[in-house]
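Protocol step 6 of 9: fold each sequence in the batch and record its C-alpha cells directly after the sequence line. For illustration, a two-sequence batch is reproduced in full.

Sequence one:
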Amino acid sequence: MSKKTIIPYQTRLKSFSVGGLELEILTIENLDRAIDQICELLDPNDPLSEDLSPYFGLVWDSAVGLITYLNEISYHPLNRKHVEIGCGLALPSFWIAKKNGEILATDSHPDVQWFLEKNQEQNEISFPFVNWNWRTEFWSEKKADVILGSDILYESRHPKDVILSLKSMLNKGGRLFLSDPGRGYLQTFHDELLLNGFKGTTHIVQGLTQEIFVLDFHLRD
C-alpha cells in the first residue's frame, strides 16, 4: 500500500459512464482548496510547489475523450503492452485493464498511487503503477507497444520533452494515442511528431463538457 498523502484531501466519490465502462472514482472534492493547502506547506517560489499541485485529482475532459475515441474505433488492447503517461486518476488505464489489456500507469505526483489504490479497490480492477516523471527521468521499464496520454502538453517545454520520452519507451511501429483540449502547444507537438519519425491522424471527439482532439500516431519502423 502507498504511504500517507501530502495533505488530508477532502474527497468525493463520483460515477462515470464512458466507452462502455461504469466506474466509481474517488476524486478531490475542492481542487482550489487542495492547491491552497499544498502552497501553505511549501514556499511559493519552490519549484516543487507547482509539481505537487494536485491537478491529478479530477477527471478531465481529455481522459474521457481518449476513452471515447478508443471505444469508437473498437480498439482491442490484447497482446500489446500499454503505458499511460501522466495518468492522474488513470481512466484510460481502467478502460484498458477492464478489456484485459496489459497496462502500466505512470505519474510523477506522489499522491497518485494512493488514489489509484482506492479506486482499483472500489471498482475491482487492478493494474500496476510506477511513479515516474517523463520530463526528467530515463525510461528503464520494458518498451511499450502503445502509449496513452491525456492533457499533458501544458507547458512550452512539454512537446519536445514528450517526444524524447516517447522515442525512448515506444517500440518501432508502436502506437501513440494522445488527447488534448486544444492547448496552445498541441500544434507544436503535432509538428514535432512528424519531424521525429511519427505519422498519423488527428480526430475530434466529445469529452465531458467540450470537444477533445485525439492524435492517433505510429512510430515508423
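Sequence two, same batch, same settings:
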Amino acid sequence: MKQTFFYLTIAAMCSFGLSAQAQDTSSTEAQASDAPATQAQTTETADTPKTEEEYPVADENQEPLPGQVYLRETHGVWEVRCIKAAEDAEEGTKELCRLYQLLNDEQGIDVAEVNIQRLPDGGAAAAGVDFASPLGSLLSADVLMRIDSAKAKRYRYSRCDQYGCFARFGLTGKELTNLKKGSNAHLTIVAYAAPKTPIKLTMSLKGFTAAWNSVAP
C-alpha cells in the first residue's frame, strides 16, 4: 500500500509539475522577448551546481571502521563478510568472518538469508548456521534442509523479532564436507498464512569451498 501510494504521489507531482510549467509558459511567453538575456543566464547559473562539493562521490578505497561489517571478498555466489578488527587489537588477532548468501524462492523473490561461520575445533558442530526468514513464518514447521539428493534434516526456529524469524543450528564435519562437494542445498519453509504451500529455496554451493577456505584459521 505504501509503495502504491508512493508511485501515485510521484505521478501526481509529475503531472502537477507539467501542468504548472505549461501555465507558466503561456502566461510569460509574451514577456519573454522583452526580458534581457542576462536574466536567463543568471537563473541558469543559480540552478547549476558550482562545484563537485555539492555532489560528493563515495571514496571507493575508504577503509571500514573498527567494528564495522564489510565485504572482504566474493567466491561464486558466496560473500565473505567480516567485522573489522580494532586498531589496538593484538597482532595476529583474526577478524570474525561469515559466509553469506541471499536466498530466492522459485519466482526469484528474495526470501531468506543464511550466514555460516567456523566454530572452534573439538565440538560436535564444525560450522554454525544462522538462518533468517520473514515474519509470518510458521515456526512449528521448522526449517528443512537437504544437500543435493540426501535426506532432509529438520532445524527448529529459535526466535522472532521485528526483523524476522531466526533458526540457529550446527553442521557436523561430515555435513560440512557434503556442502563442499555438493551442488545445491535445498531449504523449505512454510508461511503461517499458507501452511499447505511450502516455500522452496535453493542455496547454491558454487564457490562455497573457496569461501570456506578463505576463513580458515
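Proceed to step 7 once all outputs are recorded. Observation for sequence two: Residues 1-33 have pLDDT under 50 and may be disordered.
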